[in-house]
Amino acid sequence: MTTVDAYQERCEQLFRAGGNAAVRRAAQEGLDEHGPHPDLYCWLALGHAAEDEDDHDDRAEEGFRAGLALDADHLGLLAGYAELCLRADAFDHPGRAARARVLARRLDELAPDSPEAAQVAATERWERRSYLDEVRMAAATAAVGHATEIQARTLEADLRQGTAVPEEDTVDRDAIVRAATLEALSGPWNAPVRFLGRHRTAAWTICGILCVLTNTVLRQTGVVDSFSLWGALWAVPLLIVDRRFTAVRKEAEARHIAALEASFADRR
């Protein structure tokens, strides 16, 4: 029989891996086995809240309320529910949005210096973010694109050195990403994809220059009267490359989560 603590550990690992559906399955399995428990309701609700969709938000609220009915001072439930309410649309869900202050105030009363209170405070600041914060977030999102370059360089090193790919049943995320990348993008027909991936930053810089030059030439020669999208065609190959590598990472994430779930099942 799996203990509640074991289910919590399982949920935490799956949540950190981004397996929201797997978190919900593990939490629900624990609730089915042990009955109502505030910690398991907290994980069930967080698994729904992380999806950031209306239907899941409703289910998350149900989970938070069910858990708080068992333990009204549960810090994790209060913090998670407060964050859910903070990001709620005041027009579509006025009641939910209004509850944010009540929950945050209660959390400050119980544990003002706790990590949960700090997280809620950070969420409050984020919800009041300025235009400058939006720009910074966009820059951070753009930086994620470097994952493609790192992934491509790792793949090239594996192909060149003949590095053995780890076993499929490993739960190491990086190893699974490498295995999935090697499986999907090896072979001579994928050489252009690997090349553009390794030199992604330079390729996008050259692409931008070519886009501007193409549009300039088209205007000067009278082919077009103003700005056109013909220059943007240079970006199509790079977008395809980004999409290929992103698809591989998503597939690897799914394998990672499946491997984690399988490892948990083997421990029973």
Q: Helical percent range?
A: over 70%
Give the radius of gyration: 24 Å
The helix/strand series, from N terminus to C terminus, equals: HHHHHHHHHHHHH
Total DSSP helices? 13
Largest β-sheet summary? none
Walk me through this protein's architecture:
The protein has 13 helices and no strands. With 268 residues, it is an all-alpha fold. The chain starts with a helix and ends with a helix. The mean pLDDT is 85.
Name the features:
mainly alpha, 268 residues, 13 helices
Break the fold down into its secondary structure elements and pairings:
Elements: H1 4-16, H2 20-34, H3 38-49, H4 54-70, H5 75-86, H6 94-110, H7 115-127, H8 131-143, H9 146-161, H10 173-185, H11 191-198, H12 200-220, H13 236-266
Helix pairs in contact: 1-2, 1-3, 2-3, 3-4, 3-5, 4-5, 5-6, 5-7, 9-10, 9-11, 10-13, 11-13
Structure summary:
With 268 residues, this protein is mostly helical. It has helices at residues 4-16, 20-34, 38-49, 54-70, 75-86, 94-110, 115-127, 131-143, 146-161, 173-185, 191-198, 200-220, 236-266.
